[in-house]
Amino acid sequence: MKAHTLTIALLSQLFFQNALAASIRSIFLFKDVLKSNTTALKTSGFNSLIIFGIGILDNGDIKYYSNTAGSKDVVVASGGAYTGGDALAAKVRSFKTDNDTGVDRMEISMNSQHVKDLMAKPGPGADTPLYRNFVALKTAWGLDAVNNDDESIYDVASTVAFAKMLGKIGYKYTGAPYTNLNFWTSVKTQVNQGLSESNWVMDRMYLQCYDGGAGNDPGSWQSRLGMKVVPLIWVTNDSKPSQGTTAAAARTKFTGWNQRSALAGGGYWNDYDIEKMGLSYKQYGDVLKGVFP
Ligand SMILES: *[C@@H]1O[C@H](CO)[C@@H](O)[C@H](O)[C@H]1NC(C)=O
Ligand SMILES: *[C@@H]1O[C@H](CO)[C@@H](O)[C@H](O)[C@H]1NC(C)=O
Ligand SMILES: CC(=O)N[C@H]1CO[C@H](CO)[C@@H](O)[C@@H]1O
Q: Does this entry carry the keyword Signal (predicted)?
């Protein structure tokens, strides 16, 4: 019986490790999702897509900044209702639901404009416009998480209040730091206070390892944050060529980091440059599949 119990313990441990081992293979979508090559995004090995350029307005409306020539910024939630149009909703939902997709997680990435004001007044309650707008957007787009790309405000208390509000709605919360480890550690600790790790609301940290974050060491961020991170690399780009990384060079970087300290996965900033520069989604995706199976 002892051996039997041991076997079961061992098996369940293996299963648990296996469940945890599902690596994150991500890419930030800078280009308007109505214009990008969504077939390539769904079928190149990425499992996590993060739509960049979501902002909240002073009245709690939510806006999608499309960042693409010829595209219009659009208010996607207002007065507790989805207002972004059917085509956009169908496009975003299709990332996860199409039968040829490898994507199982959709996030939206935002800065922290107006978060502090709105958490102070009217607050994070379920009857506020902001809360209801995030409910409506989650339903319309089939979202899993909200990513915080705060690079300037760094107010811990309002960030935690906002993250907990999103957690009540059913979102996960993630960070995209390039600096300010102390801020991100405080937020991660307070948002997840009292929750077991499998139920953490702040369950991912995408770490910028390019441009302002070029000197970041994923291993040291992991040990200081108390959670595994997903390092991000900027693909080849003509705006800051010195920060651009080819697929081959990305493989070398990810492999080195992951050997020194096992990571949660890897990812890229961003799809717009892949398309503009005529790069291969497949090559960049294959790197992630290889290093983070
Ligand atoms: C989109 O990417 C796929 C590769 O996954 C490619 O075959 C196709 O030509 C691309 N479409 C456009 C419009 O560039
Ligand atoms: C998805 O399923 C539909 C209906 O079964 C089928 O027509 C289509 O070819 C499938 N697409 C892919 C990419 O498998
Ligand atoms: C994401 C990003 O900043 N991409 C830039 C790449 O370079 C071109 C200019 O050559 C910019 O227009 C893009 O914004």
A: yes
pLDDT for the residue numbered 190:
98
Residue 254 pairs with which residues in a beta bridge? none
Instruction: Kindly report the CATH number assigned to the domain that includes residue 241.
Output: 3.20.20.80
Give 34's DSSP letter: T
Q: What is the tens place of the pLDDT at every residue in 141-156?
A: 999 999 999 999 999 9
Cα(168) to centroid of ligand 2, in Å? 36
The answer as to whether 277 is a domain residue is: yes
Parent domain of 121: 25-291
The answer to whether the beta carbons of residues 235 and 27 sit under 8 Å apart is no
Instruction: Please report the sign of the dihedral spanned by the C-alpha atoms of residue 164, residue 169, residue 171, residue 172.
Output: positive
Distance from the alpha carbon of residue 185 to the mean position of ligand 1, in angstroms: 40
Whether ligand 1 lies within 6 angstroms of the CB of 283 is answered as: no
Split at pLDDT 50, 70, 90, the class of 13 is very low
Asked, for residue 5, whether it belongs to a domain, the answer is no
Answer yes or no: is 182 within a domain: yes
Number of domains present in the structure of the chain = 1
